[in-house]
């Protein structure tokens, strides 16, 4: 039931501190400050040479975000591909590859077919799924469940952050097993992950600011999302969420790609959502904000360091809106910044009066091609 919420999506967005916490409990041991022994016993990442993540839609973006962390922290090469392409292109697989299907439902036709294909190639397979009795859960060699609970809204929210919670926990597992981090570093990463439900709760406090900002957004015909590093796939997820429920055309780009084409789209009618947490890439993203503003673009910047946002003058200054996000370690930024991204889409759709939980033409689970 929706309780006091207007839509299941709104309720599910607000459930994320608990759904992520539940997922972490299945992977992390808060007392030992390490990845749980049963998770470590189920896999040996030191024997794995490459990950092949396969998924569709939002699950694909969760996999794409995890890729950055698997490569950076665990030193493990990762390919991520949408299942509908992967399954039909005869990919060249190398021995020692672990194929990971990521899926809320565990029934998505393309992801399931891709998983079966990997199995047929003799690869070890794993499924990160929210429905623990699903076909993928049954057929994969390894089951890595997410604990989002039933997700009713067609637009995936809490399942997405539960996927991130599970995958980031597995990054720590892989880094430890591959000797990339010390015990003390493992404890630090575990602690950082366990802090994220509190920060997600804090991020929900951005709601009122976002309600105010989305009235204008709901009048737009096109919206651009920009991010760098793992905020790039989060920008893609933000654009997907907005498209799905508000029917506004939205595109996500790697911020560094702006000059290579998308900047031609910038005008005063096209809002640009910039996701810019305080990390090594902040200055670069901030300079993209200046480029957009200088061309009359209206920027909505989501950042935890509003003080570092470049000072703009004249009309550019007026068109810049900053949403203050909670401070967080870059390792969990994707989890924390998912919240404003979801709320932006949600409130824009509410302003437009669309059917948020059952958007036109979409099904919760795509079990046919
Ligand atoms: O059940 P799955 O996670 O496999 O579903 C994959 C996509 O169909 C799903 O994420 C879709 O993109 C959602 N509507 C996103 O909000």
From TrEMBL:
EC top class, as a word: transferase
Record-given protein name: Glutamine--fructose-6-phosphate aminotransferase [isomerizing]
Localization, UniProt: Cytoplasm
GO cellular component, as recorded: cytosol
Lineage of the organism: Bacteria, Pseudomonadati, Pseudomonadota, Alphaproteobacteria, Caulobacterales
Record organism: Asticcacaulis benevestitus DSM 16100 = ATCC BAA-896
Keywords assigned by UniProt, alphabetized: Aminotransferase, Cytoplasm, Glutamine amidotransferase, Repeat, Transferase
Function: Catalyzes the first step in hexosamine metabolism, converting fructose-6P into glucosamine-6P using glutamine as a nitrogen source.
Gene Ontology biological-process annotations: amino sugar biosynthetic process; carbohydrate metabolic process; fructose 6-phosphate metabolic process; protein N-linked glycosylation; UDP-N-acetylglucosamine metabolic process
Shown part of the complete sequence: 244 to 612 of 612
Catalytic residues identified in the record: 364
UniProt subunit comment: Homodimer.
SIS domain boundaries: 35-180, 213-359
Catalyzed reactions: D-fructose 6-phosphate + L-glutamine = D-glucosamine 6-phosphate + L-glutamate
GO molecular function: carbohydrate derivative binding; glutamine-fructose-6-phosphate transaminase (isomerizing) activity
UniProt EC number: 2.6.1.16
């Amino acid at each position: 039931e929706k309780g006091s919420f207007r839509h299941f999506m709104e309720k599910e967005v607000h459930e994320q501190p608990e759904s992520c916490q539940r997922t972490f409990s299945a992977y992390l041991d808060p007392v030992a400050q390490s990845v749980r022994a049963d998770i470590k016993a189920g896999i040996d990442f030191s024997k794995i040479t490459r990950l092949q993540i396969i998924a569709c839609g939002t699950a694909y973006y969760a996999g794409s975000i995890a890729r950055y962390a698997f490569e950076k922290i665990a030193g493990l090469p990762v390919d991520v591909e949408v299942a509908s392409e992967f399954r039909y292109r005869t990919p060249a697989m190398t021995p020692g590859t672990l194929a990971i299907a990521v899926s809320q439902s565990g029934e998505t036709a393309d992801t399931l077919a891709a998983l079966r294909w990997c199995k047929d190639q003799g690869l070890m397979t794993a499924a990160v799924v929210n429905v623990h009795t699903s076909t993928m859960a049954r057929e994969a060699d390894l089951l890595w469940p997410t604990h989002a609970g039933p997700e009713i809204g067609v637009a995936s929210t809490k399942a997405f952050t539960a996927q991130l919670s599970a995958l980031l926990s597995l990054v720590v597992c892989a880094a430890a097993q591959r000797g990339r981090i010390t015990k003390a570093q493992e404890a630090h990463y575990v602690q950082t992950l366990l802090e994220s439900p509190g920060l997600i709760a804090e991020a929900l406090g951005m709601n009122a600011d976002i309600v105010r900002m989305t009235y204008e957004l709901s009048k737009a015909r096109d919206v651009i999302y920009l991010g760098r590093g793992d905020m790039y796939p989060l920008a893609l997820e933000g654009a997907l969420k907005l498209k799905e429920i508000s029917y506004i055309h939205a595109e996500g780009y790697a911020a560094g790609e702006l000059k290579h084409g998308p900047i031609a789209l910038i005008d005063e009618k096209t809002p640009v959502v910039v996701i810019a947490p305080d990390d090594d890439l902040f200055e670069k993203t901030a300079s993209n904000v200046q480029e957009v503003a200088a061309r009359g673009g209206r920027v909505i910047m989501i950042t935890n360091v509003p003080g570092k946002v470049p000072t703009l003058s004249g009309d550019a200054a007026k068109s810049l809106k900053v949403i203050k996000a909670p401070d967080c370690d870059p390792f969990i930024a994707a989890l924390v910044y998912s919240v404003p991204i979801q709320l932006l889409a949600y409130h824009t759709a509410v302003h437009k009066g669309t059917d948020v939980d059952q958007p036109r033409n979409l099904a919760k689970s795509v079990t046919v091609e």
